[in-house]
Amino acid sequence: MIVDLSTASVQVQADWEPIADATYNLHQPTQEQFDKLKTRLPESVNMEWEQALALFNPKPVHPLKNYRQTDFEVFLPPSTANVGDIWELDPKGILPFLRQFHPGATTEITIRSHRTPKSDGAKACLRAISSNYAEIVFRIHAQFVLDASGIRLLPAQFAGRLVLNRKEGAVVEFSLFLPPRNSNVDVNAFRAADMAFIPRMELSALLSTPVREIAWETSITEEEARKKLATAFYKFAKIEWSPIEDVVELAKVTNRPIHALVLFGALDDESC
To answer: I need a labelling partner for 257 at 20 to 30 A (CA). Which of 98, 191, 208, 265 fits?
Structure first.
């Protein structure tokens, strides 16, 4: 066990900005577009236009929420861990955090009603440790079912960071956020899908004591930890990609063909 946490409370703030951009603007149809869609798909579009506009841009159900320090134990390893180790996180313990955003949060990802068990769930990595502190980074794949008809938002991923004071059994820093890369969420509704951009979707702990610079005894870089998490979800993330210019030169030298793939969207997350 990295640390035994106390039962003191931690207040967490939720920020969720509306969709700022999308490929097809599925989240913001005009009245005319929505009426045509409703006529064409009456069994799938069982709401009014104003309801649809509000549905696609929800606000956090709990802008502020108090957690016990022990609630953060879900991010800890099940046994002794070394720096760089990866472990699974219990979805049941993760969901209360995600449901601060929306009650429809689930870690079971479905695409057209079919579950994708290879990419859902949550994992964590011990990035750094000292006699007084420990830092864990984590990655969560989840989706939000916005209503009974199955309208869903599928974020690319949630990245997170948890810093613990091992001696005091206290949370020093906590954040869980949607990386602000363009096209970082899929909108699935009315038998259609759209790639969209949410500028900010984040949980952050409101702590009175700021984190001072910590002298870690053993650590890896955050980039290395994130890479380990990515490869834990996707085996192909271990591939070392080369610039196309280098590949062309190598093909000439080895007299071998180039096998090229053209991607629409990201390869190593759930945004597309």
So the answer is: 265
Computed from CA positions of residues 209, 213, 218, 223, in that sequence, does the dihedral angle turn out positive or negative?
Answer: positive
Question: Which SS3 state, helix, strand or coil, does residue 121 take?
Answer: strand
CA angle 212, 213, 214 (to 5 degrees): 110
CA distance 27 to 146: 12
- Counting Cα atoms < 13 Å in the Cβ hemisphere of 202 gives 12
Determine the 3-state secondary structure of 53 from DSSP: helix
pLDDT by residue (tens digit) across 80-131? 899 999 999 999 999 999 999 999 999 988 765 444 544 568 999 999 999 9
* Bridge-based pairing state of the strands 121-129 and 86-88: antiparallel
Residue 135: name the closest of 223, 75, 204 by CA: 75
Q: List all residues 6 or more positions away from 93 whose beta carbon is below 8 Å from its beta carbon.
A: 71, 73, 74
- Mind giving me the DSSP string for 25-40? -TTS--HHHHHHHHHH
Residues 178-199 pLDDT 10s: 998 888 999 988 888 889 999 9
